[in-house]
Amino acid sequence: MDVVIRTDLCNGEKDYIQKRLQIVKGWLSSHDIDCRDNDPPRVALLGSGGGQRAQIALLGVLRQLGEDNLLDSFLYLAGVSGTTWAMASLYDDAQWSKNAPSVVGGALQSMSEGSSSSFSECVQWLRRRDAEGDLSLTDFWGVVVCAYFKGVPLETRTLAEEDQGDGANPYPLYSAVERVLLDNEKEELWFELSPHEVGFTHPGAFVKTSLLRQDFDGGQVNQQNRMPVDMVQLQGICGSAFGDAQYIIDTIKEWIYSHLPWRHSRSTSKQGLQEIVMLSFKLLERFNDMEGSYKVLEELKSELDGYPGLHSSTLLELDCNIWTKMTDEEKKQQIRIIFQELNESLEQQSQGMRILNNPVHDAFWVLNKVLGLAYNWDFGRTANILHNFKDPKVPEHMCKEKIMHLIDAGLFLNSPYPSMLTDARDIDLIMSFDFSAGDPFETVKVAHGYSDTCGMPFPQINEDDMNEDRPRSFHVFEEKGKPTVIHIPLFNMDNCKDEATIKENRSEYTTFQPPYRGKKKKINDLADLAAENVRMNRERILEEIRKAAERRKAQC
Questions:
Q1: Which intervals of the chain form a coiled coil (predicted)?
Q2: Cα separation, 250 vs 285, whole angstroms
Q3: Who is most buried in 295, 353, 370, 410, counting CB within 10 A?
Q4: What is the Cα Rg of the chain in Å?
Q5: Nearby residues of 298 by Cβ (< 8 Å), 6 or more positions away
Q6: In whole angstroms, what is the distance from residue 368 CA to residue 403 CA?
């Protein structure tokens, strides 16, 4: 049986944690913090979502933790959404936490001036995914994250390769939620991904990480016919910014356009295929506007008359009377068929040409695929590990569909608390760095409510002490018998000094904005601001770790 129902940790994580605990124990000793033999306090570092803001801020936090010799106190590092982008870069280095300032500095520099994969290389990666039969917008978004936002070559190592054995780094945990379970407000929605296992935290249904994307039936893999999830796809899943569909489409469009050979031309006249590609861009911009789409289709039909290399019988037969009688779904289906026909004719015309190295042909192929997926909003598609699985501990509604859709966990809870609150991980202290937009205490409130629903341990919170407009840099929530939570909002009265500056920074570093390419000062300013939250609270952090050690000793 490939699906395992468990409440304990898998052997791979257990082995890693034992090695990591020895490093933690050595760190505690160097700071004169006494702990029970071989049983140091379990401390977890959590990073919230928040797009590029969260990515940069987590890097700033980790750099400062490294400079302040605090990183080796952490057993786990868990992320959601934008913080997973930072984690994916760092864990490419098996010893990153031993040289955090340098490694983090490189990741921050890449965002401003890094060298990413070529457009051709990105399209080749996408074509391979398409050939495996489960291409979704997640794949395109993962490519955009690496090549456009982060400025790095496609990170094609697999998550399983982050099992680096010696415990040098905190154990990484990535988070997502299942879309259908989210839509139906089911408590089993949380999906965690580690180097050893992936699966639903509640009810504890897991498979080996290397098996994600394979087809399952009744708890077993039918046939291993797809490559394992790599870090490109993982970042697309975990950091999808799915809450703003138009932002995703616009960003993918800008990424494609940035690689077209005529993008710097001042000429407004573009001939043949160039004009057809530009009209395709217009359709992508109007993927939710069917009236506007028809006008673009009319332009496209006219353009095809002067370009015999492309043809679509569906487009030629389309007229206004037929269009107005269609439902929106039928109209979208017509556009999908039109572009499929156009793409097939382009492929036939290009036989013998190196179409994978032709940016215009590549752009048209990408646009064709993105349009079809956008109309269905096909995001996070992967085989359901619980398809036809039968176990009394697993609700039937989790097992009906062959396909599941993994999306940004921040749509439900913008910090990975559920993974850290399981009995098996036995966490004593959670240090949560919150980079969210809006209410800086929302993650604490949602985590408290979810924990209460699922019977997970979470300390009591007092909302009267949570001033959304004037948060402090260090909030502690504690209750006997439950993990203590340190909550550190990114923008606060300590590092921003006043309410007006908090508002100014929130406005400057919004979640949905273009890549920070060439904006080195803006990147460094944000990283420094996040680092200040560590620097000014170093002694308080140490004190909470000491208290966690004392609590653990008292349990014996």
A1: 519-551
A2: 7
A3: 410
A4: 25
A5: none
A6: 23
In eight-state DSSP terms, residue 98 is: G
Nearest to 23 by CA among 42, 10, 45: 42
Does residue 323 contact residue 375 with C-beta atoms inside 8 Å? no
Comparing CA positions, the residue from 175, 203, 216, 206 lying closest to residue 404 is 216
Residue pLDDT tens, the chain, 556 long: 999 999 999 999 999 999 999 999 999 999 999 887 778 999 999 999 999 999 999 999 999 999 999 999 999 999 999 999 999 999 999 999 999 999 999 999 999 998 888 888 999 999 999 998 888 888 999 999 999 999 999 999 998 887 766 899 999 999 999 999 999 999 999 999 999 999 999 999 999 999 999 999 999 998 777 888 999 999 999 987 654 667 777 888 888 878 776 555 544 434 556 677 777 777 777 777 888 888 888 888 888 877 766 788 898 888 889 899 999 888 888 888 888 888 777 767 655 444 445 777 788 788 888 877 877 777 888 999 999 999 999 999 999 999 999 999 999 999 999 999 999 999 999 999 999 999 999 999 999 999 999 999 999 999 888 999 999 999 999 999 999 999 999 999 999 999 999 999 999 999 988 899 899 999 999 999 999 999 999 999 999 999 999 999 888 6
Q: Please provide the DSSP assignment of 222-271 as one string.
A: S---SPPPBHHHHHHHHT--TT-HHHHHHHHHHHHHTT-TTTT-------
CB 238 within 8 A of CB 143: no
- Give the number of residues written for the chain: 556
Q: What is the phi-psi region of residue 51: left when phi exceeds 0, alpha when psi lies from -120 to 50, beta otherwise?
A: left
Element of type H or E holding 1: none
Q: Nearest CA to 388 among 180, 222, 196?
A: 222
Q: Pick from 277, 157, 247: which is nearest to 515 by CA?
A: 247
Question: Could you give the angle at the alpha carbon of 61 between the alpha carbons of 176 and 537, nearest 5°?
Answer: 120
Q: How many CB atoms are located within 10 Å of the residue 438 CB?
A: 11
DSSP 201: T
Q: Give 104's contacts (C-beta < 8 A, 6+ positions apart).
A: 59, 60, 62, 63, 66, 90
Q: Hunting for tokens 């095809």 — which residue is that?
A: 304
The pair of three-digit structure tokens given for residue 457, joined into one six-digit string: 């341990």
Instruction: Assess contact for 233 and 139: CB atoms under 8 A.
Output: yes
Q: How many helices (H) and strands (E) does the chain have?
A: 20, 14
Query: Do 3 and 385 meet the contact criterion of CB atoms below 8 Å apart?
Result: yes
**Which of 21, 27, 13 has the alpha carbon at shortest distance from 39?**
21
Number of C-beta neighbours around residue 313 at 10 A: 10
Residue position matching structure tokens 């956008």: 374
Which residue is it, tokens 């992936």?
A: 198
How crowded is residue 12: how many other Cβ atoms within 10 Å of its Cβ? 17
Token pair, residue 482, equals 């439950």
Amino acid letter, 87:
M
